[in-house]
Design brief:
By secondary structure, this protein is α+β, with helices and mostly antiparallel strands. The chain has 2 domains: 74 residues, no CATH class; 52 residues, OB fold (Dihydrolipoamide Acetyltransferase, E2P) (Beta Barrel). The protein has a 5-stranded mixed beta barrel with strand order 1-2-3-5-4. A hairpin with a 3-residue loop joins strand 4 and strand 5. Helix 1 runs antiparallel to helix 2 and helix 2 packs antiparallel against helix 3. The radius of gyration is 21 Å and the shape is elongated. The termini are far apart. This is NfeD-like C-terminal domain-containing protein. Keywords: Membrane, Transmembrane, Transmembrane helix. InterPro entries: Membrane_assoc_protease, NA-bd_OB-fold, NfeD-like_C.
C-alpha cells in the first residue's frame, strides 16, 4: 500500500475520533496526516519528510489555534456537546450494575452507561456526567446530583 493512502486512512480515523470527542486536538492531527498524504503524493520515497511536515503542521495548528478555540468555547451561545447531556432523562435498555456497564437510551440515541446503583431494564434514569462515549447515570429521582 502506498504511503499517501496510509496517511489518508490515519487522517480519517483521527477525524472520526475527533467527531466523538470534540476536543479539536485530534482534528489538528488529522489535518497533519492529510498534509503528510499530500507530501507523499509529491515525494513518495521520502517518508521522513512526510512525517516531519505532517507533525509540523499539527504542531503549528495546535499552538496558533488554541486561543481561537478557547475564544470559541467561551463565546455566547456556545453549547458544549459533552455538558449538554447532563441532566437529561432516559431509560435503561440493558441492565446496569456497579462495575458492569449497560445500555441506556437518551433521546433517540443509545449510550453505554455506568452507575453506582443497580438499574434494571425500563428504569428511568438521569445523566449525571458524560465521558467521551460512556454516560454516568442514576435512577430518575435519585438522591445524588
Amino acid at each position: 500500500m502506498e504511503w499517501w493512502a496510509i496517511w489518508l486512512i490515519i487522517g480519517g480515523i483521527l477525524l472520526i475520533a475527533e467527531m466523538l470527542t470534540f476536543t479539536f486536538y485530534l482534528l489538528w492531527l488529522s489535518i497533519g496526516a492529510v498534509i503528510a498524504a499530500l507530501i507523499a503524493l509529491l515525494v513518495p520515497d521520502w517518508f521522513a519528510l512526510q512525517a516531519l511536515s505532517g507533525g509540523a503542521a499539527a504542531l503549528v495548528l495546535t499552538v496558533f489555534t488554541k486561543p481561537l478555540t478557547r475564544r470559541f468555547r467561551e463565546s455566547r451561545g456556545y453549547r458544549d456537546a459533552i455538558q449538554e447531556m447532563v441532566g437529561k432523562q432516559g431509560v435503561v435498555v440493558e441492565s446496569i450494575s456497579p462495575g458492569s456497564p449497560g445500555i441506556v437510551k437518551v433521546g433517540n440515541e443509545l449510550w453505554s452507561a455506568t452507575s453506582m446503583d443497580t438499574l434494571s431494564k425500563d428504569d428511568s434514569i438521569r445523566v449525571i456526567s458524560r465521558g467521551t462515549t460512556v454516560l454516568e447515570v442514576q435512577e430518575w429521582g435519585g438522591s445524588r446530583e
